[in-house]
Amino acid sequence: MVGMFSPKRQRHTGFAAAEQVRNAQDPTPSQVAAAMVTVEVQPPTQVQAGAVMYPPLVISSGNEDAYDFVQVCLIDSYGRILEDQLYGTLSMSGKSLDDRHASRSTRAREYTVFPDLIVGYAGVYALQVNAIRMDYASPDGAAAIIAASTMTSQIIVYDESVAAEIPSPDEQTLLRRLRRDGGFGVPRAPR
Q1: Most buried residue, 3, 36, 64, 179, by CB count within 10 Å?
Q2: Cα separation of 25 and 146, whole Å?
Q3: Which fold has domain 11-176?
Q4: 3-state percent breakdown (helix, strand, coil) of the chain, nearest 5
């Protein structure tokens, strides 16, 4: 089932599902627009099992979205979530990029960087990205609600070493800006 994922390095955007809207009604256009996460930097298309992924996964969302954190999980080619096969920082809070030279729309975004993701076993995978909002008003106690979700492109994990992948020019520019800001933990390319 290799064809289930897109092999190109492109941005992916995810929208909240209608059943995730609190009142179980069809979302309004403003609710859909507000509940969006975007994969700004795709993980590598190929990586060695046990090696840190480069380029790192970078997610963005609008500042007004008010997600509490973003979480990633590993999905196999059959769509199953694989626990205990993805290592590293799997949950992170977003942060605004302090960049006065950026456009106003870019400054109104929060970025989440996953700098140390490792897949433990060879196979064909993708990463599912979930933007989580905590509901402390739930009658059953605090509840984590998936407010938005998207998938990365395909990642092929090999047992042997593979060539390091070069991010696209747009991805390189964003990674430099995030690295320059200093608070995102963006690693340098492997040598």
Answers
A1: 36
A2: 16
A3: Immunoglobulin-like (2.60.40)
A4: 15, 35, 45
